[in-house]
Write a structure and sequence with these properties.
Elements (H helix, E strand, L loop, with lengths): L1 E11 L2 E7 L5 H4 L6 H6 L6 E7 L11 E6 L1 H29 L4 H27 L4 E3 L1
Antiparallel strand pairs: 1-2, 1-4, 2-3, 4-5
Helix pairs in contact: 3-4
Length: 141
Amino acid sequence: MFLKTGRITSTSGNLVQVEFDRTMGCGPCQRGQGCGSLFASIAGKTPRSTLVDMPRPGPGASRIGDLVTVSLTGRQLVKMASLAYLLPLFGMIGGASAASMLFTGSPDLAAAAGMMLGLGSGFLTLFLLRRRCSGLIAPAW
């Protein structure tokens, strides 16, 4: 089981936003190299914390500033990692295959362009699914 402690920064309806310090994460997160830090470093910012929206356990059960411990079972971790890694991969493979079949004049160039579009669509799908995936995280209050 994976456990992590964070602080509630805001509440909105049935959701709470929890801030996790990256210095308590894995090695790449501590160095600002993991969990999307590539895009932050391109923008010149390396985040020291991560904000995550998750369901509130009950009305009035959490206040801003409260410390919470979030648990993630092995099965939940595998589901989330599979989604995060396999969806963009399948998007790349599908995009490359479809583009090389549709544009037979220059299949290599088409496959490369299709691969990039498929990768982008995979990441876009992950971005759009992020709220649904927050249900996989179970707060242990």
